[in-house]
Write a structure and sequence with these properties.
Elements: E1 9-11, E2 25-30, H1 50-65, E3 80-84, E4 91-97, E5 100-103, E6 116-125
Antiparallel strand pairs: 1-6, 2-3, 2-6, 3-4, 4-5
């Protein structure tokens, strides 16, 4: 797993052939026509430590400043990106809103997340 602080590329190379444990990022797109159902329960909210917060901040900055994807991609409102950091398999989440990638703290209890469909996935490269 590469150091996300030093720059990275989200590689789509054979994403559909990777084992679940090998996948380093997942891009999802919202299908507003997909039905949602109510979910009951209490969400678990992970408390990030200071270095994880800094990494997430640096990553969202890179997502907004350059093209981090190795394929032709035009972000759409509510696109959802998860990136694995490699540290304890911690996944960072980002949501594209109002023309920018933003850190996302939503949970599966947010109705819009039920409408997400995998668009692309792959490896993270230096």
């Amino acid at each position: 797993m590469c150091d996300l602080n030093q720059g990275f590329k989200l590689c789509s190379c054979a994403g559909d052939k990777l084992a679940a444990s090998e996948i380093g990022w997942v891009l999802k797109r919202r299908d507003k026509h997909k039905k949602v159902s109510s979910i009951k329960g209490k969400p678990f909210i992970y408390q990030m430590n200071l270095s994880e917060k800094q990494l997430k901040s640096d990553t969202v900055q890179q997502l907004n400043e350059r093209n981090c994807f190795d394929f032709e991609y035009q972000a759409q409102e509510d696109d959802f990106l998860k990136i694995k950091t490699g540290k304890n398999d911690f996944w960072m989440a980002f949501r594209y809103q109002k023309g920018l990638w933003q850190a996302d703290e939503s949970t599966k209890f947010n109705m819009w997340r039920q409408q997400l469909e995998t668009h692309e996935e792959g490896l993270i490269e230096d």
